[in-house]
Amino acid sequence: MIDFLQNHTDGDRPPACPPLDPVRPSDVLSLMDSRDSRYVAVLLESNSSYVGREVILDLLPYENIVVKRVLNTDKGFLEKLGVSSIPSCYLIYPNGTRGLINIGKPLRSFFSSYLKSLPDVRKKLLSLPEKPNKEENPEIVVWREFDRSKLYTADLESGLHYLLRVELAAHKSLAGAELRTLKDFVTVLAKLFPGRAPVKKLLETLQEWLANLPLDRIPYNAVLDLVNNKMRISGIFLINHIKWVGCQGSRPEFRGYTCSLWKLFHTLIVEAGTHPEALDGTGLEDDPQAVLQTIRRYIHTFFSCKECSEHFEEMAKESMDSVKTADQAILWLWKKHNLVNNRLAGHLSEDPKFPKVPWPTPDLCPACHEEIKGLHSWNEGQVLLFLKRHYSGDNLVDAYAEDPGDASEGGGPPQGGERERGLASPEKPQGEQHAKSLRPPSLLPPRPRLPDGSQLGLDGRLQSASGAEGRREAEAAVPFLGMGFSSLDMSLCVVLYVASSLFLMVMYFFFRVRSKRWKVRHHRPSV
Ligand SMILES: Cc1cc2nc3c(=O)[nH]c(=O)nc-3n(C[C@H](O)[C@H](O)[C@H](O)COP(=O)(O)OP(=O)(O)OC[C@H]3O[C@@H](n4cnc5c(N)ncnc54)[C@H](O)[C@@H]3O)c2cc1C
User: Fold this and answer.
1) Mean pLDDT of the 489-513 span
2) Closest-CA residue to 395 (of 104, 144, 147)
3) Rounded to the nearest 10 degrees, how much is the dihedral formed by the CA atoms of 503, 504, 508, 511?
4) What confidence tier does 209 reach under pLDDT thresholds 50, 70, 90?
5) What is the tens place of the pLDDT at every residue in 414-428?
6) Do residues 471 and 321 touch, judged by C-beta distance below 8 A?
């Protein structure tokens, strides 16, 4: 294609065809002196190399960056830039700083991926919404520094909090297929969630309670009571507000819950692959598709982004049945996630600070990327190893995670998203935060409040289903008579009361009939 484009004579060149010819070293030197508001990437390469032209074409749909190529004919120039091998990429930043970029392998995919991941480099859009003026938008989002190669406990726990207290709350009561899906999903969580002990204990308690329920319909409030630890079972804790770290967005409407959900799904599927014995005795063992299918049913039944669940269902229908091993299940989810990334690149929901590029990027996993005959290809063996490392419990970092302290009293009703959204005092002292989350339910405000649009990542779409209705549901979940009885406890009391009255009546009639018969037999005149 490059040859074809370059062989065009100037007269009939397509109007949007980018200049692919090399520039002169002197042009680059003058670029260094003149400030450009964009990044300028200069690929230094030999005459026969296509890398520079390929990277120019790769970056063509992106804005805030221009790519140029220079041939390695002027040795003095190469020395001046510090180039010791070619191809190399010299980057001039918008603020004037410059230098050679450091990448794992000098391949087209590595250069392109690096450049696409630069802050503010994003796909061109036909129209961009106006960025809200900071003065009009008083939200101050406190940025938490994090390492992209790590998983954060705070993200997984915030995601679980949102899933259990907000997303599920859209379902007033659960029965039939919905209840079965919830039971299986909670079983998968209880057995495979690699996080902290108090959270695992909460999930295990929820799972045992669901598994032993004699009812075929349960009110959501009963689930909420358990998640809020109304019974004060010791050692149980789940934070009751959102705190994104690796899932932070540069603006409140970006990333957040959906990001944490992806991370949770990858973590569960990797854990199932690396610790298959964890599912023994659950009915989900020995089936390589079991966890994937459970995730699929969760997305189909409960995920509050309906558009997302439809897309996911299409992908599942197409190829989930072809998964035959636990490793294939891990790779299936990875591939489909990349398909979603690809579809959403340049979409309005894309956070410019976290552009959607094929993942893992070359800086995270150089061995995952290869080139075959000049075309990028994945080394799936390496990708699998990487996924197993990245999504393992050992890669979980507790930085920023709330201290469960005395877990017996933790995890009360949600406290709203004030701290996350910086609406109140953005960074309260640690002690104060803990005191708030560890207060016993009786001291908490009487009407629990769910977070308002707590960084859902998909704007209004996620809020639509679970937002208002969910909030109403959760608000209804106040203890009966202020004594800590849940609605399920009360219904069980009524059932027991009726059952014992019936039993007493049956016993009464039984003994009456028996005593009558006895009297008749003893008063009968003997023959
Ligand atoms: C099941 C599902 C379906 C969705 N479908 C849609 C949709 O149809 N339309 C829509 O607008 N939004 C959809 N979303 C939301 C969308 O995928 C993103 O979650 C959202 O745009 C936020 O993106 P993000 O930058 O946080 O990265 P995300 O895509 O959310 O990824 C989160 C993190 O996972 C890691 N990661 C990235 N790619 C991979 C991969 N291939 N394998 C393993 N880990 C990876 C990275 O660390 C990344 O930061 C869906 C979300 C889910 C959970």
Assistant:
1) 86
2) 147
3) 60
4) very high
5) 444 433 433 233 333
6) no
**What global pTM score does this model have?**
0.69
- For residue 525, count other CB atoms closer than 10 A to its CB: 4
Best residue among 152, 155, 162, 262 to mutate for probing ligand 1's pocket (most ligand atoms within 8 Å of CB) is: 262
Per the structure block, which two tokens stand in for 186? Answer: 């909670």
Kindly state the helix (H) or strand (E) to which residue 68 belongs, with its residue range: strand 65-71
Which ligand 1 atom is the nearest neighbour of the CA of 336?
41
Spatial distance between the Cα atoms of 513 and 487, rounded to a whole number of angstroms: 39
Instruction: Look at the block and give the residue holding tokens 């630890």.
Output: 229
CA distances to 176, 183, 448 from 204, rounded to whole Å, are 22, 11, 24
pLDDT in tens, 35-44: 778 999 999 9
User: Predicted confidence band at 141 (pLDDT cuts at 50, 70, 90)?
Assistant: low
Query: How long is the chain?
Result: 527
The H or E element containing residue 202 is helix 197-211
Does ligand 1 come within 6 angstroms of the Cβ of 337? yes
**What's the 21 CA to ligand 1 centre distance in angstroms?**
37
Q: What are the φ and ψ backbone dihedral angles of 44, each rounded to 5 degrees? A: -105, 125
Using only C-alpha atoms, the chain has a radius of gyration, in whole angstroms, of 30
Q: Is the pLDDT of residue 411 over 60?
A: no
